Amino acid sequence: MTGATIAAEVVLAALANVPEDGGVRRAMLIDNGIRPEALENPGARVQVQKFANLLRDAMIELQDEQLGYGVGVQPPGTWTTMAQYALDAENLGDAIRRLSRFYRFVPWGVETRCEMLDENTNFTMRPANPENKFSPYLYESFLFYYYQFCCWLTDYRIPVLAIGFNFESTSYSEDYVGVFSPQRVDYLEEFSFISFSSRYNSLPIKHTAISIKKMIEHANLVLFNQYLQQARWAEKVEQVIAISAFQNNSITSVALQLCIHPHTLRRRLKNEGRQFAEVRDKLRLKLAMNQLKQTRKSIEDIAIELGYSETSAFSRAFKRWTKLSPQNFRDQSK
């Protein structure tokens, strides 16, 4: 979900269970200002606000907040009930316990658990019946809502230590994972999960019954817009670094181009749960993966373009990010 748009593959996944008979799906897209034919173009993207409205309409059409991906239906109002239940929590940790407990009583075929350790808090999802196989979209969408709801409750972008999935990476994984900006991403795990430092469990709940009433009127739009607003400064940093082609991309030079003091930029990134080096390196990874997939440029040339003085340094960093060497990644992407 880079910037204010979202990959067409995510849109198609969200609508997979909306019937095509009678033109229901097509009409829904057109009503929300999305040309159905445009979604077929490689690299097509959709504005986040249009996608949020589309999700709302699809949930109403299917009468299912899980869009047909669970074992049973989650009728409209399920999320509202959970949100109101979590609002009375003492702090974020208590709210997370309530959320995981609530969804264990919802008959959707998924078991949610919250594990609070001394250092990390892990929220996990797995099929209640091992024989059930669910679409990646079910896990991806629910973890997005879970994370953004935690950030909304506390008015704080919580840094994610790790996120993992019990399936292989998808064509839009890079786009999706960018929402969380995790330090680590794992695939083919035993279960899907998200993990952050347990010190954030003590964050107070910042919202009231009045503000939650406004949020649940259009939760999709509120949570998507929240992500965009929280990521604002990180995105500005990305834009400056990309324009400068990774030349003079220290925090001092970037802050100068943004007309603020480096300490101010560092503080604003911290408020978003980000660090300058992490933002720069995530951008490097995204561009490196695109170059390796879509061009025949040598690994040495790609390393130079991304600001590395040595190819070996780029290769080490890429392997640390993906667990694959640049060449192995390119070979697997063919």
TrEMBL record:
Keyword Transcription regulation among UniProt keywords: yes
Keywords carried by this UniProt record: DNA-binding, Transcription, Transcription regulation
PROSITE patterns per UniProt: HTH_ARAC_FAMILY_1, HTH_ARAC_FAMILY_2
The keyword Cell inner membrane is annotated on this UniProt entry: no
Sample GO molecular function, one term: transcription cis-regulatory region binding
The organism's place on the tree of life at top rank: Bacteria
Start and end residues of each HTH araC/xylS-type domain: 235-332
Xref: InterPro entries: AraC-type_N (IPR032687), Homeodomain-like_sf (IPR009057), HTH_AraC (IPR018060), HTH_AraC-typ_CS (IPR018062), Tscrpt_reg_AraC-type_HTH (IPR020449)
Name the record gives this protein: AraC family transcriptional regulator
